[in-house]
Amino acid sequence: MMGFVGLCFAVLLGLVLAINAGFMLVSPRLWFRLPHWLGGHGTLTEDRYGTGWGAIQVRVTGALGIAIIAWILYDMFLRR
User: Fold this and answer.
1) How far, in Å, CA of 31 to CA of 36, rounded?
2) Spans of all domains in the chain
3) Is 35 helix (H, G, I), strand (E, B) or coil?
4) Can you tell me the distance from the alpha carbon of 72 to that of 26, in angstroms, rounded to the nearest whole number?
5) What is the DSSP letter of 40?
6) pTM exceeding the 0.70 threshold for the entire prediction
7) 4-20: b or e for each residue (b if 16 or more CB lie within 10 Å)?
8) Residue 24 to residue 77: CA distance in whole angstroms
9) Per-residue pLDDT of the chain (80 residues; tens, 9 = 90+)
10) Alpha-carbon span 5 to 80, nearest angstrom
11) ∠ CA 2-20-7 to the nearest 5 degrees?
């Protein structure tokens, strides 16, 4: 039973991280407009990280997040 609960938690966490990384990569300004419980942007502000160099940093972080998720999925399902 605990294994099933852990698996459900892992899937939910993975979905939230994938949504965040996708929005970060596509549009940092939209990422800041996500609900606070879903966005997970902590102390980052749209004024500083919504445009310019800050937006590039957010996009790079989103790309790294998607790359890490893809690496984990590859390792779980295809590298056996």
Assistant:
1) 10
2) 2-77
3) coil
4) 21
5) -
6) yes
7) eeeeeeeeeeeeeeeeb
8) 26
9) 888 888 889 889 889 999 999 999 999 999 999 888 887 788 888 889 888 999 999 999 999 999 999 998 888 888 76
10) 25
11) 10
